[in-house]
Amino acid sequence: MKLVSIVILNWNGKRFLEQFLPTLIRHTPHPDVEIVVADNGSSDDSLAFMEKEFPLIRTIRLEKNHGFSGGYNRALEQIDSTYFLLLNSDIEVSEGWLEPLIQKMEEEDTIAACSPKILDHNRRSHFEYAGAAGGFIDKYGYPFCRGRIFDRLEEDRGQYNDSTEVFWGTGACLLVRSDLYREAGGLDEQFFAHMEEIDLCWRLKRMGYTIHMVPSSTIFHVGGGTLERGNPLKTFLNFRNSLLLLYKNLPRGRRDKTLFIRMILDGISALRFLLQGAFKEFRAVFRAHMAFYGMKNSYRGINKGDKTAENNVIVSGIYPGSIVADFFLKGKKNFAQLDQGFRQEKRGKNA
Questions:
Q1: CA distance 168 to 144
Q2: What pLDDT shows up at residue 316?
Q3: From 61, 80, 234, 306, which residue has the greatest number of CB atoms within 10 Å?
């Protein structure tokens, strides 16, 4: 049994394997760590490339594209290690990147998962969209990060170099305890892709564990390797999955009101797309809401008697305001401009 299994889920990403796998191997000399490439039904020559260039690296072949969630769940079922490290194929790791993550997990058994600082591969002085320096959500389910609010990316000047508890760690690079991953039920396959790591982290927090960001570990992410921002499918998945995220995890006493307001905000976003002439994105928001209504019944009763929490538990770290209002109306463009009190709130019961 290995200490860590670094698992790269690949889908038609031969170019990224060719570019970044040698660096990963060079900067991961730990004898108790294995690298695994799980191929998610690629139609390019990724598998032939792995067999020829890296025959000693374990490859798991999945028969079709199961999405991010389903691909990882099926791959991790075949792996036995203390920690799983989910790693995107389009990431360049730096020297000494892994040790601080392992050390953080070994410090406290209440830490379920952690992520490194994630910078932009093409603009290396700035944070990257997918996780920056640790993720949070506001009370309406909009995700944001230390170093990134909506599409505004801050320059990394060391302002977030403190190791701290966060609400979610990026699925681009997430070290998670294998036993807790399985106990929580893994990644939700109905999400298919996008925001599934936030859902997993929320469930882990509801179980009483914490999520941390470790800035002494740094990686560089290309981003958009599968779906670029502005892609209507990505718009659809983000809007739909955000609604599913709230429906699944909020206490029942807060859920309906929160979803009602969130849908109004989504409607404003859709109108903005329409006024910009982005008709495909406008339709994507509408389709996302219709899909949510069709899917939410599958989560009925999810808060009753499951392992993830007693009913009505409110976890810490949810921003009590609206990041939409703060960003667009109040001009708060950087994380440091937000009221930081929410990060120290204690978990409690919903009234």
A1: 10
A2: 81
A3: 234
- Scanning the chain, the segments in alpha helix (DSSP H) are 14-26, 46-53, 67-76, 98-107, 178-183, 196-206, 232-249, 252-275, 279-295, 323-324
Q: 225, 90 in Cβ contact below 8 A?
A: yes
Residues 158-183 have pLDDT tens digits of 999 999 999 999 999 999 999 999 99
As a whole number of angstroms, the distance between CA 139 and CA 187 comes to 22
Indicate if the pLDDT at residue 330 is higher than 50.
yes
Q: Cα–Cα distances in Å, from 60 out to 8, 184, 339?
A: 10, 23, 45
Residue 315's pLDDT is 83
pLDDT tens digits, 284-316: 999 999 999 999 988 866 655 444 444 455 688
Measure the CA–CA gap between 220 and 218, rounded to whole angstroms.
7
Model confidence pLDDT, tens digit, residues 86-113: 999 999 999 999 999 999 999 999 999 9
Own/partner contacts of 292-295, CB < 8 Å, gap of 24 or more, are 292/240, 292/243, 292/244, 292/247, 295/190, 295/240, 295/244
- Look up tokens 């409607």; give the residue: 267
* Token pair of 269 as six digits: 């976003």
Specify the fold of 2-221.
Answer: Spore Coat Polysaccharide Biosynthesis Protein SpsA; Chain A (3.90.550)
